[in-house]
Amino acid sequence: MNALELHVVFGTGPAGLTLVDELLARGHRVRAVNRSGSASVPRAAELVAADITDEPRMREVCAGATAIYHCAHAPYHLWDDLLPRLQAGFLAGAASSGARLVVTDTLYMYGPTGGEPMTERTPHRATSHKGRLRAEVADRYLRAHTDGVAEVAIARAADFYGPRVLNSALGGAVFVPALHGEPVVALGDIDQPHAFSHIGDVARALATLGERPEALGRVWHVPTISTLSTRQVHGLIERELGVELTRDVLPAATDRAWGPFDEVFMREYAELFYQYLEPQIVDCRAVEDAFGLRPTPFEEGIAATIAWYRQLLG
């Protein structure tokens, strides 16, 4: 493997920044890209500004890359307009450079499963508009690969948790109040199994897919743990902190502001709330069998997350 390969990471949220760290650790040359050109990235990485929807600019930014990674975030209420435009930009950059394109994806396209494990072959039966939109976008990415437009792999993750993860069901709304002795936020039926993907495992999966040509042309589930309920995860936090948590639980979807989430977010998220009302189980054996990637043990992940939040809060 050429240690000077250029890997370009789009998005400087928790997934993008953790991926930058992972790629640097693997000896790659890394370019981080966001709209502002401002972010806290390691000095060893290059940071540039670009609008993903600007296709000529995408061709410039991706020139010479071996792999490019879609870790960019779009607010829910902009998805209808923005997701197709982001896709066009990524495909333009990948097609012009010949770089492998690795896309970070959600589980929304599968829809309610009744607790059946989700595999990469689970049919897309989304009942939500956002789920159907994600299915359409994913299908277009895979068609682009099949048609020879660009080389594409898709990495699907569950709810993120871990260092740098703030806006998640297992993010700041849990760890900040837990450290302050205040009620933590929880959604739906907290005694149902729920899937969580450690942000470090997401980054390792993305980097591996970007390095391995045999990963192309298909969907992969990133290493994810689905065996614990939200209440059991809270129990791990309690043991790490040595305190008993109290909870503020939202039992059903709402279109009103709730906890740390504003009205716009809650209204947009309501159609996806089913994820917290049934067992959410993700089968990630394919990525383990192919590349040896396994999820970080939850106890280890929780300890690292608490340590990061303690540092954040001072």
UniProtKB/TrEMBL annotation:
UniProt cross-references to InterPro entries, sorted A to Z: Epimerase_deHydtase, NAD(P)-bd_dom_sf, NAD(P)-dependent_oxidoreduct
Ranges in coiled-coil conformation: none
Signal sequence, renumbered to the chain: none
GO terms for MF: aldehyde dehydrogenase (NAD+) activity
Residue stretches making up the NAD-dependent epimerase/dehydratase domain: 11-216
PANTHER family the UniProt entry points to: NAD(P)-BINDING DOMAIN-CONTAINING PROTEIN-RELATED, PROTEIN YEEZ
Protein name as it appears in the record: Nucleoside-diphosphate-sugar epimerase
Organism: Actinokineospora auranticolor
